[in-house]
Design a protein that fits this description.
Helix content is about 30%, strand content about 35%. It is of the alpha+beta class. A hairpin with a 4-residue loop joins strand 4 and strand 5. Helix 1 packs across helix 3, helix 2 packs across helix 3 and helix 6 packs across helix 7. The longest helix is centred in the N-terminal third of the chain and has 17 residues.
């Protein structure tokens, strides 16, 4: 069974246990080692499942602080893919892939401590069907397995998230930076917007549970549709 499927099974089992009262509000969940043995998975898979539940605000990490990007008020989960999350909100969104190419990016490699500057670049524009373009997303991912072959074969189901999963990479933690900046000429042309229009600018770097690089994505998001939701947690 793929690692991503195991993660979903663990998350579903814990979500059900919480919903049915097996774990009461304020009660701590068992440790990663106990859960890994119970569900016969790795601790990394447990950690990823717990991260999913934390993003959904089913559980909270003690003293934790996190941010979630929302679209029209619906939380977007980068692990399952923004397109799927947006679709669940009832809005039909399509993605236009601009580029899938092998690149050498020494600056990104140095900034994020990557052992290899040879990466795959995936650029895409997201738009509401029958409506405006709402985001420009430029991702860099490892030249690894199915991600490397995406240059010739395209994305799995037209989804970078699905392609990352097919490569066997499981994002378990991430850092994100948010600011507001005006669109440049090239960006405005790609988004069919006016030069200088303010967009949310998001930079996110995700890694596996053991610190392996998964994705660096630079996104420009329409502030009319996207918001950043901050949440502060206490232990469950």
């Amino acid at each position: 069974m793929p690692v991503s499927s195991k993660r979903r099974l663990v998350a579903d089992a814990l979500r059900d246990a919480i919903a049915t009262g097996r774990y009461a509000a304020g009660q701590r969940l068992p440790g990663e080692h106990v859960l890994a043995e119970r569900y016969a998975v790795s601790r990394g898979t447990v950690r990823a499942a717990l991260a999913d539940l934390a993003d959904e605000e089913v559980i909270a990490t003690h003293g934790g602080i996190g941010s979630v990007v929302t679209f029209d008020g619906a939380a977007l989960d980068p692990r399952s893919g923004w397109a799927r999350s947006i679709a669940a909100s009832g809005v039909e969104v399509a993605v236009r892939v601009l580029r899938i190419a092998r690149v050498t990016d020494v600056v990104t490699a140095a900034e994020h401590g990557l052992p290899d500057a040879d990466l795959v670049a995936v650029d895409r524009v997201r738009h509401v069907v029958g409506g405006p373009d709402v985001s420009l997303e430029r991702s860099l991912v490892p030249r690894y397995g199915r991600l490397d072959r995406a240059v010739e074969e395209g994305l799995v189901d037209d989804s970078l998230t699905a392609t990352i999963a097919e490569a066997g990479l499981v994002p378990a933690r991430a850092e994100q930076w948010i600011d507001l900046r005006p669109l440049g000429e090239e960006e405005a042309a790609l988004l069919h917007r006016r030069v200088g229009e303010p967009f949310l600018h998001s930079r996110r770097v995700s890694r596996t549970a053991d610190g392996g690089f998964v994705e660096a994505v630079d996104s420009l998001l329409d502030p009319e549709r996207f918001r950043i939701h901050m949440h502060f947690g206490s232990a469950r």
